[in-house]
Amino acid sequence: QVFGCMRKEGLQVTILSTCPVADYKTQESTLTLPSPFLKALKTKEFKEPVCCPLLEQPNIVRDLPAAVLSYCQVWQIPAVLYQCYTDVIKLDTVTIEAFKPLLSSKILKNLVKDISESTKILKKLLTSNETHNNIYI
Fold first, then answer.
1. How confident is the model at residue 119 (pLDDT cuts 50, 70, 90)?
2. 41, 70 in Cβ contact below 8 A?
3. What is residue 54's predicted lDDT score, i.e. its pLDDT?
4. How far is residue 79's CA from residue 47's CA, in Å, rounded to a whole number?
5. I want to staple 79 with a disulfide (CB 3.0 to 4.6 A). Which of 2, 48, 72, 73 is the partner?
């Protein structure tokens, strides 16, 4: 429905997603992998360089990120998915920091004023969010 309201000319989509490192398929043990880490998956029309290695087979992407990427592939919209594999259940600053290399990408570079302040801002946002999730308020 979101894409139905947008012009497709000149559109480029970037999808950010996280999932458990246990879902990552590899020959080596997932215990030796540095967590969190990023993998990318892109449509044929996406011509920009990606900021991390591409996702290898037989790994798959699920749910909404997969649906958005599939829609973009069918409608020939340039799109890239950055999948962060992490060993934590709840989003934290370490996991968000894994996405930091994307801030220097061509499409996201104009959205960021000062990358050096990003860590401090993220910590503040996550700390305020934690108080709302506390069961013992």
1. low
2. no
3. 95
4. 9
5. 72
pTM (whole model) above 0.90:
no
Q: What pLDDT score does 15 carry? A: 92
Please answer whether residues 17 and 84 qualify as being in contact, where contact means their C-beta atoms are separated by less than 8 angstroms.
Answer: yes
SS3 string, the chain, reads CCHHHCCCCCCCEEEEEEEEHHHCCCCCCHHHCCCCEEEEEECCCCCCCCCCCECCCCCCCCHHHHHHHHHHHHCCCCEEEEEEEECCCCCCHHHHHCCHHHHHCCCCHHHCCCHHHHHHHHHHHHHHHHHHCCCCC
62 closest CA partner among 90, 103, 20:
20
Per-residue model confidence (pLDDT) at position 125: 62
Residue corresponding to tokens 């409608």: 75
Question: CA 94, CA 90: separation in Å to the nearest integer?
Answer: 11
What are 43-71's pLDDT values in tens digits? 999 999 998 999 999 999 999 999 999 99
